[in-house]
């Protein structure tokens, strides 16, 4: 009789533990050797824990600005956001500055007297200088505190569609297929570094977070990686089937580079530049125009053209889609990240700039990690 009662008692305890009772009394029995539950105490605790709330991303922009004469040209880079929270935008022959703090608009320069047009803009790392690439092939550098041109860099023979700063060194990519690197502090007569590798127009330039490597994309479907010493690329990737304008280095995973291809390619590809090996690839279904990583979590945003004109937020490395944002009626050719890393601004040939909250400010407290991941270090 005693053994039968004990057996019934064990069965009751196992039944309760299996269904994850939250009673304190039964919690004490989780580690009991008499438990008949197939679940371990840790698994039972996990089942009882509340589900983490899914982050909500607004599907509508929190601000929309008119941008008349914003060109519908895939190869240009006409929008950038400085660390001082000022937006620079190239509209036709002019560059305008918009303060996100005061909403004040200032016209920085007008190239119409030279029958010229703005083809790229890029802020320096400190946000006190802005470089302006032009259709005629020269680059001007402006001190925004006094609205004064402080440098004019010659050397290209065609339009300059891509710019990238590394301290006081400015890299420029052109339709003449060259990348020129110049220290703006030196005399203009000092020869520039000429990086030769692309066979068609250079349309994307990005420095790695440690400022040691420059990634360049071109209309020749090639992605090159350059170091500070060589005048030839140290790595070349040829998997894309269309122009490579979208380039982004991960701020979280050392050596991880993402790139996106044009209409005939539509893919976002990831590269381990430490080993030179390709990693994941995802077909987005439409032209990839821009890429940007979140500053605070392992997510990235992509903007697209033909044929869906959408904005997508991705989780890395799973490449699950977190959000899909629509609203532009033309290709979403321009993208910039806010200095706090929370918002983005997108621009399109529909002549609007749209501001979206897509990333969380705080760094995730618990990152999902895998022993199989090539990149586990957070910078």
TrEMBL record:
Kindly give the InterPro entries that the UniProt entry links to this protein: Cdc20/Fizzy (IPR033010), WD40/YVTN_repeat-like_dom_sf (IPR015943), WD40_CDC20-Fz (IPR056150), WD40_repeat_CS (IPR019775), WD40_repeat_dom_sf (IPR036322), WD40_rpt (IPR001680)
Q: Which domain of life is it from?
A: Eukaryota
User: Which keywords does UniProt give here?
Assistant: Cell cycle, Cell division, Mitosis, Repeat, Signal, WD repeat
Which pathway does this polypeptide act in?
Answer: Protein modification; protein ubiquitination
User: Where are the annotated WD repeats, by residue?
Assistant: 111-152, 195-236, 325-366
For the CDC20/Fizzy WD40 domain, which residue ranges apply?
65-356
GO biological process assignments = cell division
CDD domains registered for this protein in UniProt: WD40 (cd00200)
Family membership, please give it: Belongs to the WD repeat CDC20/Fizzy family.
Q: Write the protein's name.
A: Fizzy-related protein homolog
Lineage of origin? Eukaryota, Metazoa, Ecdysozoa, Arthropoda, Hexapoda
């Amino acid at each position: 009789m005693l053994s039968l009662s004990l057996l019934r008692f064990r069965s009751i305890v196992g039944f309760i533990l299996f269904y994850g009772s939250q009673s304190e009394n039964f919690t004490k029995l989780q580690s009991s050797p008499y438990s008949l539950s197939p679940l371990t105490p840790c698994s039972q605790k996990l089942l009882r824990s509340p589900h983490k709330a899914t982050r909500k991303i607004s599907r509508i922009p929190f601000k929309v600005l008119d941008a008349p004469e914003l060109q519908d040209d895939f190869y240009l880079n006409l929008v950038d956001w400085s660390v001082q929270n000022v937006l620079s935008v190239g509209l036709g022959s002019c560059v305008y500055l918009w303060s996100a703090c005061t909403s004040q608009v200032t016209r920085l320069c007008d190239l119409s007297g030279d029958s010229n047009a703005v083809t790229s803009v890029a802020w320096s790392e400190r946000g006190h200088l802005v470089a302006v690439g032009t259709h005629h092939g020269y680059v001007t550098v402006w001190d925004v505190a006094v609205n004064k041109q402080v440098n004019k860099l010659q050397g290209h023979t065609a339009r300059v569609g891509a710019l990238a700063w590394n301290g006081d060194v400015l890299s420029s990519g052109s339709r003449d297929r060259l990348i020129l690197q110049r220290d703006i502090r030196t005399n203009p007569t000092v020869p520039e570094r000429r990086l030769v590798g692309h066979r068609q127009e250079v349309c994307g330039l990005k420095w790695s977070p440690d400022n040691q490597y420059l990634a360049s994309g071109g209309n020749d479907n090639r992605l090159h990686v350059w170091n500070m010493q060589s005048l030839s690329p140290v790595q070349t990737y040829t998997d894309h089937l269309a122009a490579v304008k979208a380039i982004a280095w991960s701020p979280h995973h050392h050596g991880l580079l993402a790139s996106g291809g044009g209409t005939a390619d539509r893919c976002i590809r990831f590269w381990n530049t430490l080993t030179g090996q390709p990693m994941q690839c995802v077909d987005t279904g439409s032209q990839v125009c821009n890429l940007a990583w979140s500053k605070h979590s392992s997510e990235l945003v992509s903007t697209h053209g033909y044929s869906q004109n959408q904005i997508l937020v991705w989780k890395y490395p799973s490449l699950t889609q977190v959000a899909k944002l629509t609203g532009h009626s033309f290709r979403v050719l321009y993208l910039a990240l806010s200095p706090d890393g929370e918002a983005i601004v997108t621009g399109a040939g529909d002549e609007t700039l749209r501001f979206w909250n897509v990333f969380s400010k705080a760094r995730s407290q618990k990152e999902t990690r895998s022993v199989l991941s090539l990149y586990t270090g957070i910078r």
